[in-house]
Structures are given as C-alpha cells and as structure tokens.
Design goal:
Helices cover 85% and strands 0% of the residues. The chain has helices at 2-23, 28-36, 43-55, 62-110, 113-124, 126-135, 141-150, 155-169, 171-182, 185-222. InterPro entries: TMEM64, VTT_dom.
Length: 223
C-alpha cells in the first residue's frame, strides 16, 4: 500500500516538474515578467503563492522564486510572499513524504541500529536538526523537506524550523533580487550578510547536535 501511494504522489510531481522545466522561465526576471503580464493586479501575489506551494515539491529552485518575488513585488511584498511560500511549499512536500513513504522508512530504520540512533536523535532534537540543515549552505531545501517528512520529526517542529530558516535562507534572495533590479548596493549587501549569518548559525547548531550525540554515546558506553 505504501508503494502504491508513493507512485500515486510521485507521478503528478514528476509531471509538474517536467512542465516547470519545459514551460517556466528559469531566471528571476523571466518569472517576474510572467507574473506581471496580463494585468493580474491583486491576483498576482495569490497566484505566486500557489506557485510556491506547487513548484517547491517539484524541486523548482526556491532561490529563483524568491528573487522573482523581490523583483515583482518589492522588498516588503516580496519578503512576505517568499516567507509564506517557502513555509507553505515546504509543508506540502513534508506532508507528501509523510503520507507516501513514512511507514516504509520506519520499518527499514527499525532493522538498522545506526539509522535507529539517528532517528531517535531526530525525534528528540527535530527542531534543531531541521533548522541546522536548513541554514547550511548547499543543502537542497526540498530534499530536506522530503527527508524530514519520512523522519520522526514532529510537524510543529518542522514548521517552526522552516519559518525561522526561511528568514535567513529564502528572504535574503528577495533582497538580492530587488537590490540587483533596482541597483541598490545596500539591499544586495544586506541579502549577502543574511545568508552568511544563516550559514554561521547552521554551523553552530550542527556542532551542538554533534556534541549532544557524542555525549549520548559516551553515556551509553559508560553504562
């Protein structure tokens, strides 16, 4: 049953991904022009938010969506849209993974002691683990969403980590997009600084998790 559900969810995602790859512009300016074409008015932000929730699970780059939001709706409107879209899109991907594959993964983890230890850590420190991974440069956001969905991380911890992580890893690209579009070096510098601060924060959280894991291993060995 789990495999059947996985196929039923994977096929539409693959279709959306293929359509996005073939039909949608891959640049922030191209997406901005697409959003603002046709005089959508107040509907444009709503359509953009729906696009975030659909395209995020389909692996469309969130950085491109964020930069396009900044170009289309400015710093304030783009920030609100990108933050909401990143959280909503992440939650959709999380829910898809949890619905389709959680049971299968749980059975596999139970058979492997090392994976079971990682699973236990994620269940106890899910918020810190997800936030650390979300802030680290080079970690694909959607892959993290799916990985968290099949892990024991609680939904409320996932949403909280995504909400904070989006402020430091998604919103800065809104500022970069707006800054490059308007020629504002201040916005560009602020965006770059936010990304750097997020990376440092992710590194600090990762170090803390490793220290916690090492202490747990030491306690287990001592007993």
């Amino acid at each position: 049953m789990g495999f059947r559900r996985l196929v039923m969810l994977a096929v539409p995602a693959a279709v959306i991904l293929a359509a996005a790859a073939l039909l949608l512009p891959k640049s922030p300016t191209g997406l901005r022009d697409l959003l603002l074409t046709g005089e959508l008015g107040l509907l444009a932000p709503l359509i953009a938010l729906i696009a975030w929730s659909v395209l995020t699970p389909a692996l469309f780059p969130g950085t491109v969506l964020a930069a396009a939001s900044g170009l289309a709706f400015g710093s304030v409107g783009g920030t609100a849209l990108a933050w909401s879209g990143a959280v909503l899109g992440g939650l959709v991907a999380f829910a898809l993974a949890r619905t389709a594959a959680r049971d299968t993964v749980t059975r596999q983890v139970a058979r492997r002691p090392k994976l079971a230890a990682v699973s236990d850590l994620l269940e106890r420190r899910g918020f810190t683990a997800v936030l650390a991974a979300r802030l680290m440069p080079g970690v694909p956001a959607t892959a993290l969403h799916y990985a968290a969905g099949v892990s024991p991380v609680r939904a409320h911890a996932f949403v909280a980590a995504m909400a904070i992580g989006a402020l430091l890893r998604t919103v800065p690209y809104v500022l970069l997009g707006q800054g490059l579009g308007s020629g504002s070096p201040l916005l560009v510098a602020f965006g770059v600084a936010s990304i750097a601060i997020g990376g440092l924060g992710g590194g600090a959280l990762l170090w803390r998790l490793r220290a916690t894991r090492d202490r747990s291993r030491s306690s287990s060995a001592g007993s």
